[in-house]
Amino acid sequence: MTAQQTSLSGTADPRFFTRSGPFDAQALADAAGATLVQPKNAGVLPAFTGIAPLQNAGPNDVSFLDNRRYAHLLEKTQAGLIIIAPAFADKVPAHSAALVSSAPYLAWSRVARLFHPKDPAAPGIHPTAYVDATAQVDSSCEIGPFVVVGPHAEIGPRCIIGSHAVIGQGVQLAADCRIGSHVTLSHAVIGERVIILPGARIGQDGFGFAVGPQGFETVPQLGRVVLEHDVEIGANTTIDRGSVTDTVIGAGSRLDNLVQIGHNAKLGRCCIVVSQAGISGSTVLEDFVTVAAQAGLIGHIRIGAKARIGAQCGVMSDVEGGADVIGSPAMPFREFFRNVAVLRKLAKKASGPAEDGSGK
Amino acid sequence: MTAQQTSLSGTADPRFFTRSGPFDAQALADAAGATLVQPKNAGVLPAFTGIAPLQNAGPNDVSFLDNRRYAHLLEKTQAGLIIIAPAFADKVPAHSAALVSSAPYLAWSRVARLFHPKDPAAPGIHPTAYVDATAQVDSSCEIGPFVVVGPHAEIGPRCIIGSHAVIGQGVQLAADCRIGSHVTLSHAVIGERVIILPGARIGQDGFGFAVGPQGFETVPQLGRVVLEHDVEIGANTTIDRGSVTDTVIGAGSRLDNLVQIGHNAKLGRCCIVVSQAGISGSTVLEDFVTVAAQAGLIGHIRIGAKARIGAQCGVMSDVEGGADVIGSPAMPFREFFRNVAVLRKLAKKASGPAEDGSGK
Amino acid sequence: MTAQQTSLSGTADPRFFTRSGPFDAQALADAAGATLVQPKNAGVLPAFTGIAPLQNAGPNDVSFLDNRRYAHLLEKTQAGLIIIAPAFADKVPAHSAALVSSAPYLAWSRVARLFHPKDPAAPGIHPTAYVDATAQVDSSCEIGPFVVVGPHAEIGPRCIIGSHAVIGQGVQLAADCRIGSHVTLSHAVIGERVIILPGARIGQDGFGFAVGPQGFETVPQLGRVVLEHDVEIGANTTIDRGSVTDTVIGAGSRLDNLVQIGHNAKLGRCCIVVSQAGISGSTVLEDFVTVAAQAGLIGHIRIGAKARIGAQCGVMSDVEGGADVIGSPAMPFREFFRNVAVLRKLAKKASGPAEDGSGK
C-alpha cells in the first residue's frame, strides 16, 4: 500500500463521513456569507455534491484557496466552485464559479459543515457501560461502550461520551459536550459544548510536593478544573486540577494535542495553546492569548491580553498585553531575529576571511 | 458559565473531597510542626473546619503564604489561621492567628492532609474487571471497573487500581500502590507506595531498530521497567522498558506529566523530572537530580548528583554533580545569561545609533 | 527495593519473555550473518541459552558491543559469545568466542529475535470485547478484553488488538498489525505489519478553526490518516487526520513516543521521528528524513530526502535534501556550533579581563 494507492479522487471518504446535499451555488453562497461569481465560460451551474482540495476536485465539488502558497493549484483545478479571497478572484479558471469572501477560511468552514454536519447524539447508554446508581445522566445522552460514570456525576442533555471514558465522582458536564474515547475526567466542572479529544487527562493531581525529613511529601491538591463554555481540548493533553484554587480554561479557548496545563493556571477567554506547549502552575493568561507549539511558560507569571508567544519560546517573566515574543528566554520578535542576524554576521567575521565578504 | 460563577468561597469542593475535622489550632500546630502565635486582637480561637487560599479563607479556615509574590494578599485576608515563614510573621493581620514554620509549604502539606486524608482502598474487585485466573491479587486491593490483570501478575496489599488500567502479564506491584485510570503497565516490577497518574504508559517497547537491507529491523526489547519505592509518575508519561538492562526510576523520584524516559535509562533516588522533559536511552541520573520542564537529554550520558537542568535545556554531554545548567546546548546558568546579555548589547550596537545610547 | 535488589544475572526475565533455544554458535552466526571466531584459549563451545549485556553475561550467554563508550566492559565480561565489529575483534577476551560483523547492531537484533521470537496471535475474540455486527474481523485475529470494534471496520489476518483499544467505524487494518492497549483509531486506513504502541491517538480532529463573529468556528476535518506498511507508532503519540487531504505516514517510518503530527502532514518512506517532536499541519517530509527529539516543524514546509533535523531544532522554512540542521531557528550544524563558540568567546571578552586570557 502506498499513499498513491489509497488517495481519493475527492475527499470525505464515505466510510467515515456522512454527507448532506446536493446544494446549489446560491445556497452555498448564503451559508458562506460569500458573493457568487459565475464562471466566465460555462452555462448553468450544476448541483454541488461535495468538497475537495483543489488538486482533486471535480466539476461537482466545492474547493477553496486560503493560503497563497497553494495559488498555483488554481491553474489546473477542475473544481466547479472555488471559495476565494477577492485578491485571487481573477485567478479563478474560466470554467469555475467562485464564492468570493473576505474571510475565505471561515466561508469554507461553513460550506464544509453544510455538506458534513456533525452527527447528533444517538440517545442511549451502551449495555457495557457502567453508570453509578447515584449519577444523573440525561436521557438524551449517548454513552459509549465501557464508559464509567462515577457517583453523583451529572451529565447534561445531548452529551456524547466516547468509549472507555471515565467521568469521575461528582463531575458535572453541561449540555452538548463531546467527550472522546479514553478521556479521564475527575474533580472537574465542565460548561456547555465542551469538546475533549481522546486520551486527554483532566483533573488529576498536580505536581506538588514539599521536601520533608524523609524525602518528598505530597501536597494535597484540593482544587478543581473548570472548563468554561465552548472549550476544546486536544488528544492526550493533560490539565492538572488546582491545589488551592481552581485550574480554569476560559470560554472558547482551544488547546491542541499533548499540551500540559499546571495546577491553578488560569486561561482567559478564547486563548489558543498549540501542541506540546506547557503552562506551569499558577500562571495567568488573559483573554485572546496565543501560545504556539512547544512553548513553555514558567509558573506564577501573567501574560497580557492578545499577547502572542512564539513556537518553542521560553517565557520566564510577565508578558505585556499585545506583545509578540519568541526565543528562550522570551524577547520581542524583532529583537530575536535581529539577534540571530547579528550573531550570524559576527560568527562569519570571526571564522571566515573578513575583507572580501566571501566568508561563509 | 464563567470562572466567577463557579468559584468557591473556600476550597476543597465537597463533591470531590471528603473532609475530616474540625481541629483546634494546637492540634494543627502539632501536625504542622509549627509554632502557634495567637492573634493580636482576638479572643478564643475557633475550631478550624477547612483550608482555603488567602483570598477566599474565612475565620474558620486555615490558609498559608509560601511565595512572597502573594504577600500582598495578607492585607485583606479573613483567614483565621495562617501558616507562614518567620520573615512574614509580622505581616499577619491582627485578627488572624499564625502557625510559624521555617518550612511553611511542608507545614501546609501536613495540615491539608489532616483535613483531607487520602481515601483508603475499598477492598474488592469490580464485577466488570477481568482478572486472569493465575494472577494473585491481595484481598485488600481495590480493583476498578474494566481493569485487566494479566496472567501471573501479582498485586500486593491495599493497592488501588483505577478503571481500565491494564496490569500486564507477570507485572509485580508491592503494597499500597495507586494506579490511575487507563494506565498501561507491562514488563514492570513496582515497589511500595508507587503512584501512577492516568494514562501513563510503562514498559512498552523502546525505540530500537537496526538498519537492514530491506529497511529498519526492530531490535527486541528484553529488559524491564523497575519503579522503586515511593516513585510517582505523571499523567500520559511514557517509560519504555530496557532493551538489554532495565529502565530504573529510583526510590522517591517524581515524574510530572508527558515526560518521556527512554530504554535503559537509570534515575537515582529522589530525582525530579518536570513536565514534557525527555531523557533518552541509557542516560544515567544520579541521586537528587532535577530536570525542569521541556528539557531534553541525549542518550548515553551521566548527570551527577544534585545537578539541576533548566527548563528547555538541551543536554548533549555529561553534567557534573551539583552543576546548574541551562540553554541548548547546556551551559552553566551564569554563562547562559551572560551570553544573552552580551548578544543583546551587540545587536543593539549593530543596529541602532551607537553613540547616544538611545538605540533600542 | 532498590535497583540492586531487582537486577538480574542475565536479561529477559522469564516472567515477561518466552525463550527459544539453545542454539549452537554456528546457527547464531548464520542468523546474524556474522563470522564465527573461536575463542583463543577454550575448547568446545557450549550451546548458548540466552542473551545478556556484557556486564551480566555468563559463559552460556550471547552478548554484544555496539558503542565504543562501553568497550571497557570487554575486559571483565564472562560472555561466552560476543557480537562485535571488526575494529574491536582483537579486544574480545581469550575465553570468549566472537561473531564478527560489520553491522553488529543488526546482527544482535537477529540473534535476540532468534532467542525471543514475537508471540504470534492467539486467535479469538475475548468475551468482554464489543465487536459491532457489521465489522469484519478475520478469524485468525486476537482481540483483547474490552476492545471496541466499530461498524464496518475491517481487521485483516493475524492482527493483535490490545485490551481497551478502539477501532473506529470504517477503519481498515491490513494483515499482521499489532495495536497496543488503549489505542484509539478512527478515520484511518492501516497497512500491513503496522505496530502502534499503547495510548496512541490516530485520526481524531485536527486543530482547525476559523475566526467568526462570535468566536472560533471549527473547520470540519474531512480527511483521513493513512499509515502505510511497516509503520511503527510510539506510545501516547497523536496523529490528527487530514482536513481536506489525508495525513500520511510513509511505509517503514517509525515514530517514537509523544510525537505530534498535524493534519495533512505527509511523511515519506522510512522517516524517523524521535520522541516529543512535533510536525505541524501540511508539512511534507520526503523519504528517509530524521527528526530528532523535541524538534518542531512549522506548517506548510517541505523537508528534502535524507535531511536530518537535530534535537530541539525549530524549523521555520524548507530544508534541502541531505541537509543537517539544528538550532531554533534551524541552521546548518556547523553554523550552529560556530555561533555558539563565537558567542561564548565574545561574552568572555565582554565580561572578563580581556588581556591575559584568564577571563572565564
Q: Can you walk me through this structure?
A:
Three copies of one chain form a homotrimer. Chain A is 12% helix and 25% strand. Chain A has 360 residues and is of the alpha/beta class. The first copy, chain A, has a twelve-stranded mixed beta sheet. In chain A, strands 7-10-13-16-19-24-27-30-33-36 form a ten-stranded parallel beta sheet, with no helix packed on it. The first copy, chain A, is built from four helices and 38 strands. The two termini of chain A are 44 Å apart. In chain A, strand 20 and strand 21 (215-218) form a beta hairpin. Chain A folds into two domains: 9-115, Udp-n-acetylmuramoylalanyl-d-glutamate--2,6- Diaminopimelate Ligase, Chain: A, domain 1, CATH 3.40.1390.10; 183-329, UDP N-Acetylglucosamine Acyltransferase, domain 1. Chains B and C meet through strand 20, strand 21 and helix 4 of B and helix 3 and helix 4 of C.
